[in-house]
Amino acid sequence: MQSAPQLRFQRILLKLSGEALMGDKSFGLSKQVLDGLSAEIDGIHELGLQIAVVVGGGNIFRGAAEAMKGVDRVTADQMGMLATLINSLALQEALERYGLHTRVLSSLDIHQVAETFVRRRAIRHLEKGRIVILAAGTGNPYFTTDSAAALRAMEIKADVLLKATKVDGVFTTDPERDKDARLLKRVGYMEFLERDLKVMDATAVSLCKDNDMPIVVFNIGQPGNIRRIVLGEDVGSVISE
Fold this sequence. Notes:
This protein is an alpha/beta fold. It has 8 helices and 11 strands. Strands 4-3-5-2-1-6-10-11-9 form a 9-stranded mixed β-sheet, with helices on both faces. It has a two-stranded antiparallel sheet with strand order 7-8.
């Protein structure tokens, strides 16, 4: 009889960018990407892992960028929060087609489509085996969804924050622009901040540093990477002490 795989973590928070949901499109959502993500999440959920997800909204609306065009920053960020809610509902629908039980918890009160985020409620859903999708960022302007992911990871007592990107981890420079960019497999919080490495928001990394929350940065475009990480394989880059 084959023994069950040994999990490296018991509870994770997965941070997905809105752009990751576009696939080859220039805007909106890709059903193919949503189905692929759902299959991957279903596979790790079967291992007994507790999973929370924070999704960005950049595939629909990016508050900071619109603020630079003259839109009031607070209003722009609130519009961005609603974009994350659209993505969260799309991911919920895709996951439920795989038979997974999900809950969307929103930092904004919008009772018709999502529960309001309450920390104890989120933890209870996780303990019951539900996939918890955390929408609308922190509910406050001027904070990115990276910062929201770091905050929620601490609140739900996740073992790790998994930051999904388009590249293989943390590089010395942007690997899409610099062919000499070097992958850093291990990087300290302070080194990340001092070198101003751009793969994740500095506020989020500072919050993780203050609360000793490890971050794994990995390529979401490589199928099976999430499973490899939770089973202890050396995938991507680790930001920690």
